[in-house]
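Each lists sequence, tokenised fold; shown next:
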Amino acid sequence: MSIYFEELDYRPTPMGVLTLRRRRKPGTEIDVYEIKLGDEFLMSSAFTAAEIALADIGLASFLQDNLDVVVGGLGLGYTAQAALKNPRVGSLIVIDALPEVIEWHEAGLIPVGKELSADSRCRLVHGDFFTMATSVGGSLDPTAPGRRFDAVLVDIDHAPDNLLHPSHAVLYTADGLRRLSEHLKPAGVFALWSNDPPDPAFEALLASVFGAVQAHVVKFENLSGDEEVTNTVYVGTKKAAL
């Protein structure tokens, strides 16, 4: 194929056709990696600021070391990579519903995958994050039922009301968020990426479960560099035990 465009893999999945492709950014020698599910773009390496900010903002409040962290959604790996760059992180579990995406990372088809696979703190897990996080008796670590974490960082759906699959809706309810909070240690953090501006109704829902909530607006330039784009990172902090 042309040096300017290459389809690296193409996989039919129960959620639709999954495609990994690489293209050359015009006028540069920069390769852009993209994951598509059907006609939807799941991730592009041309835009990574918000994915990195999810980890940076989500972990910013911690002062202690040896943090146990979960990332829901692997994608191109930038949230996981940013978490591992934090020296306070002691262990990281990255959960993804698509085994093909995990295979791409482990095979080195995605550049960040080599770094994730080489880091002994990091484990890539195939699973349905939403079921693991919100079902009764569910666990975010299949090898350690009941394990709790310092932070859970989620980058899967486009927004709380713009979902990749209807089954994800359970997380964005009071009951779903309460069940997710049970996987957190006291004073643990739940951070969520959204493509949309801050939603006061969702902030209020988060506050009803976590108490302390902030919505951070992340700004970055679009692909052509002529317009500023914004995403949102929501952060809910679980109340510390009395």
